[in-house]
Amino acid sequence: MLYISYSVYGCVSDYVLVWEIKSRRKRRARGKGRGEAEDEEELQAAQEESRSEKRKAQLARWRDRFIQNIQSAGLLLEKVHAKKTIHYLKLSAPWDVLVYYAEELCLRAPLQAQPHPDFNTSARVLQKLWVPNVMADFVPNRPVDYYTCAFRKSKMEKFLGSEDHQNYFSITQRHRIVYEILARTVYGKRKHAEVGAARLLNEGAFKAAFPLHEGPFELPDYEISPDQLNKRQILYHYWARWSKWYKYQPLDHIREYFGEKIALYFAWLGFYTAWLLPAAIVGTFVFVSGIMTMGSNTPAKEICESGGHYLMCPLCETCKPWNMSDICPMAQVGYLFDHPGTVFFSVFMSFWAVTFLEYWKQLSPESLDLSVMMYETGSSAGNIANISSSMVNLALILLMGQVYTALAEQLTKWEMHRTQTQYEDAFTFKVFIFQFVNFYSSPFYVAFFKGRFVGYPGHYGTLFGMRNEDCGPGGCLIELAEQLFIIMIGKQLINNVQEFVIPKVKAWRQKKALASVKKAQGGLEPQRWEQDYELVACEGLFDEYLEIVLQFGFITIFVAAFPLAPLFALLNNWAEVRLDAHKFVCEYRRPVAERAQNIGVWFIILEALSHVSVIVNAFLIAFTSDFLPRLLYRYKFNSDLHGYVNFTLAYAPPSYNYSSHGMCRYKAFRDENGSYTLVYWELLAVRLGFIIAFEHVVFSVLRVIDWMVPDVPESLELKVKRERYLAKQALADNQEALLVSDSFNPKAQRSYCRQ
Predict the structure, then answer these.
(1) Least buried of 231, 308, 440, 584, by fewest C-beta within 10 Å?
(2) Nearest to 481, CA basis, from 335, 302, 327
(3) Alpha-carbon span 449 to 506, nearest angstrom
(4) What pLDDT digit, counting tens, does each position of 122-177 carry?
(5) Which residues contact 476 (CB under 8 A, 6 or more apart)?
(6) Widest distance between CA atoms in the chain
(7) What DSSP character marks residue 437?
(8) Which pTM was predicted?
(9) At 671, is the secondary structure helix, strand, or coil?
(10) Nearest to 570, CA basis, from 480, 492, 498, 485
(11) Whose CA is closest to 570, among 227, 276, 261?
């Protein structure tokens, strides 16, 4: 080899690089009587093998130079191999390297321990009400929280624990420093961007690069004190198990083990799940109230008792006329999704969405920087056809989702962003736009376009010679509810099955591939780095965020048509938290801890969705629901809605020749000549007025909520001021006080770090 191997025996291994070298296959000896075809095949195989050997030699040179350079950067190395097939290189950063990069990366250094708050919001409320808090759980070895400032080598003695070189830097900080060294190290020509371990992983020079887990997650067979469990065992026993579904998440422990970025995701998911509870309760109440008041639905009674009184015009060119009474069951079920309670629920969810985001904006700095938050958190045939088409649509949506993600990744690469943050934000935005169109286009079509351009008997609208599609006999709203149910619930079930099955299948394939190596080792107990190599590489948080953000769109944008959406979202998220926790603790290799100020561009997307939902629900109530036509009829004609069905039906023009069945009816506000009646224009004015009033009232109240809820809570401001004061005392002079990194001004920190 081109490098000298240093042993890190007795030191903590911060990182592991893995590569495999497979033995060269023996070529067959040339025998007699071989044909020209076989000789040609042998020649092609030899040429391919030659190219493969050259590629392997190139990768080996890159790998050797890379290892030489990381050794020159100061890392300590220890090489381990298993039967000369799989090679492990354990890396460790000595004290001098840690100190140098801690200052360069502006890592946080402890100044003074701060007390933990005893209760979170829900715990305080339950305590005041004298209600036992079943969600509370004692989790051992809670990490100490500190007031901190940016690390400075010249002021080392001012920081707590600086004399303990072995334990001063946390494990996650050590991982971050080694990761930065690996990301900066050159292995080829810098002008060709031949830099970093990530590029070598893509090229195939290394099979894996990961920090080590801190021991097994399984609890020992013998009895052990909770304080003696390792950090991974604590996370598994008190967080990742299904029996802990109703307990608070141990966010302090998650942040200590996985870093701020992953802890922030679980804090946000738990907070969102907790806020879904009131939305689910109200939505379920609205749905149940629809069931309870179904008997008072006068229009449905009129439809069911009409018999052959209302002969309806055919819904397609080859269809026959039908009686309004045929859709009696659909009219009764449709009331569950179209009654005054759904209008109230739309307004409620508009306020809920923005209030949720305002309170998250306030609490996210606390959960990240000071860890003071813990949350857990015929008509029958047509109906079957609609459900079947929705299921086919779901399959196409999931298939196209993969295509759109790949397209967004390629487009973002072509843009050549300067920083990783810019790349991730651009990629996230593109994927969301593609997936927004992918998932929401069919509900938008059913809600606002289907049945709008049909025309009227004798003058039906056409597209490419085909009659425009009309809504089913039960109306478009019930079709929209069916679409939302199938797409949302189906997507959630498929995603959960994938999250449960795919990591296990990948881990099984990895273990199967390494079975021969383990067999060659005999009965030796596998080492920690060998066990971690059998795990699945962590795939990050992008898919997790995307799944929940799309769910947020379903429960806000079309909630007027599907009041049970928050309930299904709540049930899904209770499972989602445990599935994700189990993946990170038990099935994934340990990811590198990353710092984060917030959930990034996802918050901007959530804000956009919450505002879009107000507009969409206003149009949904105004143009798709029967709420406003019923309201107008109550005001002008009959408060009990008697005769409402006849009021909504028009007669086909006399020129529409259907003599064998007589004059038929269709749903519209037109006269016998097909022209719009005065009622149509009155109703249009009411609809437009409702939209303007709805969005003005909602947005005005939202501005008041935004003004009332401060972005930074007073308690956090006091802690930030306390941290600044301690930093000034420790660093002594004004210039060094600039090292204080304001948690709410990351630009200031970055500007100092560039100096």
Answers:
(1) 308
(2) 335
(3) 44
(4) 777 777 888 888 888 889 988 888 888 888 888 888 888 888 888 899 999 999 99
(5) 446, 447, 450, 451, 624
(6) 102
(7) H
(8) 0.85
(9) coil
(10) 492
(11) 276
